[in-house]
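## retry 2 of 3
previous attempt timed out at serialization; input unchanged, resubmitting
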Amino acid sequence: MRTLPARCAEYQTIQLPMISLAKLCKECAVTTIDFLKIDVEGAEADVLMSGDWNRNRPKAVVVEAITPVSGEPSWEEWEPFLLAQGYQFALFDTLNRFYVAKEEPQLAARFPTERAPWDSVRHMYEIGRAPENRNHPEHTLTRVLAHGFWSILPYLDRHLLSEIINRGRTPSNATAADSALQSLDTEEFRAQLGRIAGGYDGGQLEAENTSDDVQR
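## retry succeeded, writing output
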């Protein structure tokens, strides 16, 4: 357990099952990895050292290299190990360190040696979310996709719906998400999806006067 700074007055310890990087790759039948990003809030060394770097060799690896909260460099703990696995350092962007497999010289040659000035590009946090910000470059496309997505809700596979609901779970809507997951196989849940979709595909969904049945 890592020591939290004094200003972190409240916290909750939660124990969850863990899996090594090597086992994850094996169970998911991963054969080729082009790009591996490791950002696990201070446990980067644990992840790196749990990998099978002979069997699974990402072409490029980027690792968060600054200790959370304190902002102190942390790569001394794990960089020697990664270099020993046949990776060469390419770039440090003040937060992450980038490495390229030695058997990928063409990729290494394309890496910049210095990060670009911060104000040379427009950052996504400045643009905001595509559906909400008209100035977002993908705002129009997002509206087209959203229109289509809402209209096909009643036809989505149960497992896909479950994944979508889990991805949308936040502390503020956890109760609603749990309720939805428990209701996936009910007619009422399908009716809920239909009422959402109705506004996009031109249909309507209304409850009959004395019945729980619904019609479209």
